[in-house]
Amino acid sequence: MISYSNWSVLSVSFMVVLYLALSGVALCSVLHLVNAKWRFEIRQLAVSLFALFPLAFVLLLVLLFGAEHTFPWIGHVSHGEELHMPGWYTLPLLATREIVGMFTVMSLCWIFIKRQEVSERSKEDGERFHRIATWIPFFYVLYGTMVAWDFEMTLTPAWHSAIYGMQNIISNFGMFLAFMVIWIYMLNASDKLVTKIKEYVYNYLAQMLLAFTLLWVYTFFAQYLTIWYGNLPEEVDRVMGMQNGDYSPLWWSMIFLKFVIPFTVLSFRVPRHSPPAILAVAACIVVGTLFERYTWVAGINGTGTIPVLAAIAVGAAVAAVGFMLVRRMMHHNHLLKA
Question: In DSSP terms, which residues pair with 336 in a beta bridge?
Fold first, then answer.
């Protein structure tokens, strides 16, 4: 029988793949709405991550079919225990909202990409593109909150946080920005792009990384302080368990990698204009976010074995499939050299 900690690797992989697929379109939408000129440098590359949606959907189906391994609360429901938000804890409803939610955001993202391709063709096309762009952030936050609740927050039935959905969205979007830095750097260094991304883009991404680092630590501490000050056993036990239990190395490493290093480095002007320095910070943020996801998903009560081998094996397999899907889409969009 597969242990919960090993099975949780699939949940983490799903969250990571899903947010990479979602966030490319979300970034292009936001940059369009604020009229950022540098969006033209990265928008085709960013939306190529849409190719990850089929992989995210397959992972979702696996997690739903193996629901008894994915959601520990299923055992609580079957024994008739009292739960917070009891109507939320039904597997048919969860499966329905997750599948419908994914197809909804996939459809919106696909429409966004198609309209972006012809947005400069005429004034009418530009207006149609602008309309769909205004909907993307709204559904990104709404859907992201639902996913955060289902796959992380409500894993412990008695635990809840009003700010957790926003914290999760901010954390994962920051991870996506860090991934973009690494991805662009590797593509430029390998000279595989038809048109290289301009170096000034690193600075803009670094500024956004600093902003999301501050947003993440703000929402993290706001949640932590509220739970710590209230000191309600059903809320504080989970956080203290992750902080002081078997997953404490990941917990403290997460804070160092996601806040201390990015804030210390990116607060200064010189590193924000140095692609290698930005690359190093981005790598810290990606690793820190993975630690965060494993702490919340695999270490829900602070006890258990950290699934190192499963994370390496499953992560490598998922990364390989994702790489092939995105590369195929990039070739289709003529972004890569033949």
Answer: 193
CB neighbours of residue 165 within 10 Å:
20
CA 212/CA 33 separation, integer angstroms: 18
Angle between helices 39-47 and 91-117 in degrees, nearest 10:
130
Q: How far apart are CA 162 and CA 303, in angstroms?
A: 24
Q: At what angle do helices 39-47 and 4-33 cross, to 10 degrees?
A: 140
Look up residue 317 and give its amino acid.
Answer: A
143 CB neighbour count, 10 Å cutoff: 20
Q: What token pair was written down for 43?
A: 């928008």
Phi (first) and psi of residue 193, to 5 degrees: -80, 145
Question: Would the pTM of this model clear 0.90, i.e. be above it?
Answer: yes
**CA–CA gap between residue 145 and residue 101 (Å, rounded):** 11
pLDDT, tens only, 140-199? 999 999 999 999 988 887 788 889 999 999 999 999 999 999 999 999 999 989 999 999
Asked whether 18 and 147 are in contact (CB, 8 A), the reply is yes
Query: Residue 326's closest CA among 195, 180, 114?
Result: 180
Please choose, from the candidates 174, 204, 262, the residue with its C-alpha nearest in 3D space to the C-alpha of residue 43: 204
Angle (nearest 5°) at CA 283 between 280 and 288: 125
